[in-house]
């Protein structure tokens, strides 16, 4: 066969894939991610860099135990120690309904997450490279085990896209589903009020904002009422999920210095990044509150309600974690980065005009202040020497600013792919650690 004919036949054989990629770019990105994930997993496993793959015999770790316990036995409650009432019912009862094994539920969770991400990315018209990068976020490892992250992502995407597309049905279903999935959804109430207040301040939006806010409050109230009723019927106390929190070391107190995470160095950089983003969201909320007070002289910025909700959720969750975990930021990256709110904030940041370089110089000082909360520059960081700590947080700052500057970096494509590969390796490393029983949440 002549070389030209060979090349022509080779190209024709791939033409359906090319047509599919052009017609369904988001699905093509998800398929490419799955292919790269499978290739990298098999390579690292073959060379012994990762030693475990998920299965029924190694997934019973951390909170999976409690979800499985609720699935099989229903709720139990103790007034002297930890108990299952700290967890909301949608995942374990959905798991019971499917009758899937632990590995089967993991596959279903991961599939639901990918479907929700594809839907969210398509509706936001997210760039393919940015979608690929977001799919590699290391803490998305929790989407592939029997945790609530996947269901929370599905319903969180629903409520955000309801705001984005003006679909109140999506908004109500999303809030109701989140309210049945995770205790953190109780914090949606002040976030919703914050969003409605700023939304109503925009010209001609007051009536609409109040209508959506009222529907949202009803949805959250209905979900929490169902959880309270279920626990009242099973354990005799409708507020058991709030009373048991103290046994999980989750109660109001002053934070301790330096900040730590029991998950160790493998997760600390991710929790530190989440803290940095949460502090940034807190600053944005403060600025928006100031603009709201000055709205008679300064017009309110036209920020989409979806973004207001995401920023408010980030800010409130950081305040809650800092004030209730005594300096431990355990789980912060899981709550903030493994969520549709992170996708929305990254998307919105990349729709804004590029900042002048001096803005990033101004931003560096508060970022360094956040790192110092971990004792980064005072020889108090996890037994590191001063030089090691500076190097660690220098790399962390580079990673953070690479994300923030993606809009204007000259080698944007290459940097995205470098970040993607690094993230994917870390994702597989975290999964390997989790399957060995190490605490990484």
From TrEMBL:
Species, as recorded: Hymenobacter glaciei
Keywords in alphabetical order: Membrane, Transmembrane, Transmembrane helix
Domain of life where this protein originates: Bacteria
Transmembrane segments: 31-53, 101-120, 132-163, 169-200, 212-232, 272-293, 305-323, 335-352, 359-377, 389-406, 418-440
Protein's UniProt keywords contain Glycoprotein: no
Protein name according to UniProt: Glycosyltransferase RgtA/B/C/D-like domain-containing protein
Keyword match Phosphoprotein: no
């Amino acid at each position: 066969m002549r070389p030209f004919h060979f090349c022509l036949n080779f190209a024709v054989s791939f033409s359906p894939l090319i047509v599919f990629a052009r017609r369904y770019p988001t699905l093509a990105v998800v398929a490419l991610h799955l292919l790269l994930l499978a290739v990298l997993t098999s390579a690292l496993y073959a060379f012994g860099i990762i030693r475990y793959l998920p299965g029924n015999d190694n997934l019973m770790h951390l909170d999976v135990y409690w979800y499985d316990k609720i699935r099989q036995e229903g709720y139990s409650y103790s007034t002297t120690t930890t108990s299952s009432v700290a967890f909301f019912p949608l995942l374990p009862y959905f798991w019971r309904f499917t009758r899937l094994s632990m590995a089967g539920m993991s596959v279903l969770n991961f599939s639901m997450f990918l479907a929700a991400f594809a839907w969210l990315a398509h509706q936001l018209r997210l760039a393919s490279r940015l979608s690929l990068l977001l799919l590699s976020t290391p803490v998305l490892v929790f989407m592939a085990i029997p945790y609530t992250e996947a269901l929370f992502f599905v319903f969180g995407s629903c409520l955000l896209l309801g705001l984005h597309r003006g679909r109140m049905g999506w908004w109500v279903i999303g809030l109701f589903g989140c309210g049945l999935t995770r205790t953190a959804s109780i914090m949606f109430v002040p976030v919703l009020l914050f969003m409605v207040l700023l939304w109503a301040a925009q010209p001609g939006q007051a009536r609409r904002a109040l209508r959506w806010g009222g529907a949202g409050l009803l949805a959250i109230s209905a979900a929490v009422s169902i959880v309270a009723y279920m626990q009242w019927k099973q354990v005799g106390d409708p507020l058991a999920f709030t009373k048991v929190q103290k046994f999980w070391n989750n109660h109001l107190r002053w934070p301790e210095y330096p900040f730590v995470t029991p998950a160790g160095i493998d997760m600390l950089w991710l929790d530190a990044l989440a803290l940095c983003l949460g502090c940034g969201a807190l600053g944005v909320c403060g600025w928006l509150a100031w603009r709201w007070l000055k709205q008679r002289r300064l017009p309110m910025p036209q920020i989409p309600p979806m973004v207001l909700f995401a920023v408010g959720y980030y800010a409130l969750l950081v305040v809650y974690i800092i004030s209730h975990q005594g300096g431990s930021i355990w789980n912060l990256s899981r709550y903030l980065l493994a969520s549709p709110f992170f996708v929305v904030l990254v998307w919105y940041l990349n729709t804004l005009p590029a900042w002048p370089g001096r803005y990033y110089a101004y931003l560096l000082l508060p970022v360094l202040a956040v790192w110092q909360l971990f004792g980064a520059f005072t020889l108090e960081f996890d037994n590191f020497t001063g030089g090691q700590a500076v190097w660690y947080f220098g790399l962390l700052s580079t990673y953070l600013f690479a994300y923030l500057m993606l809009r204007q970096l000259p080698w944007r494509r290459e940097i995205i792919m470098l970040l993607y590969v690094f993230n994917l390796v870390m994702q597989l490393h975290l999964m390997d650690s989790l399957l060995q029983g190490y605490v990484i949440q």
